[in-house]
Amino acid sequence: MRDAYGLDDDYQEWASGNRFDPAERWPWWIDLVADSVARGVAVHRARIVSEPISAYTRYEYDLTSGHNVKAGEIVRWLPRRQASALALPGNDFWLFDGTSVLFNHFAGDGAMTGEELVTDPAVVDLCASAFAAVWELATPHEEYRPA
Description:
Elements: H1 9-15, H2 22-25, H3 27-38, E1 44-49, H4 55-71, E2 74-79, E3 92-96, E4 100-106, E5 112-118, H5 121-137, E6 139-140
Parallel strand pairs: 1-2
Antiparallel strand pairs: 2-6, 3-4, 4-5
């Protein structure tokens, strides 16, 4: 849900004009998701973005087809202005099997500061319903044209 995360070496390389192949850069992610999808696991990712998009979001968008989608993820994008009426958790999260949530915590500069695994059913339900609401409004990656 952030407009930028830690501006690591990969981002800096991309920003300098080197359009590397994400499948070669992060084969472990391609393998992990592809193996999961092959077992019947659905991997969905929704990104809530400000428009016009930030340079970092452009980086994510540019890498999505060769990284996330290639691995087997189904990705959707939701402009932030369309999310105003949604109740959303305060942190990025991963929802696993409707039983646990892994929150990612970030500093103001986008550096990751930690993770928090939560199994409280009320929190899991909140995150599941928030994700479902975002997913319903969001545009599939193949159709999204960032402003």
